Amino acid sequence: MSDLLTISLNNVRFRAYHGLHPEERQKGNDFVVNMQVNYVPQNGTILSIDDTVDYAVLFEIINATMQKPVDLLETLAQTIANNVQQQFPQVRGITVAVEKLNPPIDKFSGTVGVKYSKQY
Predict the structure, then answer these.
(1) pLDDT for position 7
(2) Is 55 left (phi over 0), alpha (psi -120 to 50) or beta?
(3) Using an 8 Å Cβ cutoff, are 37 and 94 in contact?
(4) Which residues make beta-bridge pairs with 31?
């Protein structure tokens, strides 16, 4: 059995303009993204950034995706996951959770979110 490493980005906050409703595209909303990426190191002990999945690049992928408005949180989570796997083919599994902090639902108190997991 191979070693498995997990890299996590936790509670990454964004102001973005995703949603089905026109006011969401105009006013925006606050979002939190959490991501776990699993991969098998190729050369045993990691001694260089080139031997790992760079979490700064993972953040860049999330940030770029969050800047392009879409209707659904599901679309965001799947797009982030697919973009990560394209950039880092050594990824064997990924979980992306996207939470909308102020959903436009009458009399609703709380947050809504989507979690997407995929194995490669």
Answers:
(1) 97
(2) alpha
(3) yes
(4) 14, 100
**pTM of the full predicted structure?**
0.93
Q: CATH says 5-119 is which class?
A: alpha beta
**CA torsion angle 64 69 72 78 (round to 10):** -20
Torsion sign, CA atoms 10, 25, 116, 3:
negative
Confidence at residue 43, expressed as pLDDT on a 0 to 100 scale: 79
AA identity, residue 92: R
